[in-house]
Amino acid sequence: MHEQASIQMRPIGFVETDVPDGEIAKRRREMLSEIVLLEEFSEYLLGIHEYSHIFVLFWLDRAEPSDQPVIHPRGDSALPLTGILASRGRGHPNPIGLAVCELVAVNDTRLTSTTSF
Predict the structure, then answer these.
(1) What is the DSSP string of 22-61?
(2) Are strands 70-71 and 32-37 parallel, antiparallel or unpaired?
């Protein structure tokens, strides 16, 4: 039997964008975001400007977990029922997100990026 283990994470930064939450899904490929690292992590960015893209793991802190194991993707009943873990929705039991982002600019602890997935 596997014991349930707890996992602890702490943020190393935050994402800022002018795009309202309700429009992010539609505009994610065109929007600019600022990934702002906490000052204590500034040295961790040494050399990052050499990269064209970065992987960003993030916590969907405003997402509501789903109490349903299967859903219609994007709430569209024309689409077949799909397991919540097989969907791109925000209602996963552990709301961890992953994005591949184009690195547009680096300014101290601020990374300007676009989502390129």
Answers:
(1) HHHHHHTTT-EEEEEE-GGGGGGGTTGGG-SEEEEEEE-T
(2) unpaired
Q: Could you tell me which of 11, 64, 56 has the C-alpha nearest to residue 33?
A: 56
Residue of 46, 61, 44 whose CA lies nearest to 9: 61
pLDDT tens-digit map of 68-104 = 889 888 788 999 999 988 887 777 888 888 889 999 9
Q: By the 8 A CB rule, do 86 and 36 touch? A: no
Looking at the chain, the domain(s) classified CATH 2.40.30.70 span 13-60+95-115
Beta bridge partners of 70: 83
- State pTM to two decimals: 0.77
Q: Strand, helix or coil at 86?
A: helix
What fold is seen in the domain 13-60+95-115? Answer: Elongation Factor Tu (Ef-tu); domain 3 (2.40.30)
Buried b (16+ CB within 10 A) or exposed e, 21-39: eeeeeeebeeeebbbebee
